[in-house]
From TrEMBL:
Belongs to the cytidylate kinase family. Type 1 subfamily. The keyword Kinase applies. It catalyses: CMP + ATP = CDP + ADP; dCMP + ATP = dCDP + ADP. This is Cytidylate kinase. InterPro entries: Cytidylate_kin (IPR003136), Cytidylate_kinase_dom (IPR011994), P-loop_NTPase (IPR027417). GO terms for cellular component: cytosol. GO terms for molecular function: ATP binding; CMP kinase activity; dCMP kinase activity. It comes from Candidatus Terasakiella magnetica. HAMAP family: Cytidyl_kinase_type1 (MF_00238). It holds the Pfam family Cytidylate_kin. Keywords: ATP-binding, Cytoplasm, Kinase, Nucleotide-binding, Transferase. GO terms for biological process: nucleobase-containing small molecule interconversion; pyrimidine nucleotide metabolic process.
């Protein structure tokens, strides 16, 4: 019997850092599902396609290979914005669903289970996950975190632009018809606005040990 931890929430709320640490400390396999959408959006750009064209997006999702997920450029904001455009297309989501579900139900040998982070893990990908966390923080706090992350990577960025991009992406993710960003009814909400990462990790681990 393996355990599945579903972590959802908006951009830069701290999901990735939390998911990575929980995976390491509890010996779970980790899947960053945002990478699948980023790689799909990036492939559309690379092919000279149209990000608002559902067929271009679907073709890119169908042709994804594991090496497409290793591109450093997927961490740039251009890929994030592209991801949130292709992510509104239901057939793209359907195409990526089976891989995510298989990862959750059949983690690699030696792992005690899997942790997946994204926008719809607790609601659509793994609705039966025993542990669901919804990690959030105010838009301003998340924009500050993203700004620092970009600057730490040596990329130029200004707060006002990062904040606007964040708001645009939040709106697209939560207002779309296909698997919109929202907390599952049985998710525990973790607001990280005023918490340090170690506190968030401790809270998450205690919730997991209660529920798993
Ligand atoms: O998590 P990350 O910021 O890398 O995700 C990039 C974009 O991919 C999100 O803004 C969202 O539009 C999309 N996404 C999604 N469902 C997921 C993960 C990501 O729609 N499970």
């Amino acid at each position: 019997m393996t355990i599945v931890v579903a972590i959802d929430g908006p951009a830069a709320a701290g999901k990735g850092t939390l998911a990575r640490r929980v995976a390491k400390d509890l010996n779970l396999a980790y899947l960053d599902t945002g990478l699948l959408y980023r790689a799909t959006g990036f492939a559309v750009i690379q092919a000279g396609g149209d990000l608002d064209d559902a067929n271009d997006a679907l073709k890119a999702a169908q042709n994804l290979t594991p090496t497409d997920l290793e591109n450093e450029k997927l961490r740039h904001d251009e890929a994030a914005q592209a991801a949130s455009k292709v992510a509104v297309v239901q057939p793209v989501r359907d195409e990526l669903l089976e891989f995510q579900r298989r990862f959750a139900s059949q983690p690699p040998a030696g792992k005690a289970g899997a942790v997946l982070d994204g926008r719809d893990i607790g609601t659509v990908v793994c609705p039966d996950a025993p542990v669901k966390l919804f990690v959030t923080a105010s838009c301003e706090v998340r924009a500050q975190r993203r700004l620092k992350e970009l600057q730490d990577r040596g990329l130029e960025a200004i707060y006002a632009q990062v904040l606007q991009d964040m708001k645009d992406r939040d709106a697209r993710d939560s207002q779309r018809a296909a698997a919109p960003l929202k907390a599952a009814d049985d998710a525990v909400i973790l607001d990280t606005s005023d918490l340090g990462i170690e506190e968030v990790i401790e809270q998450a681990k205690s919730i997991i040990s209660e529920k798993a």
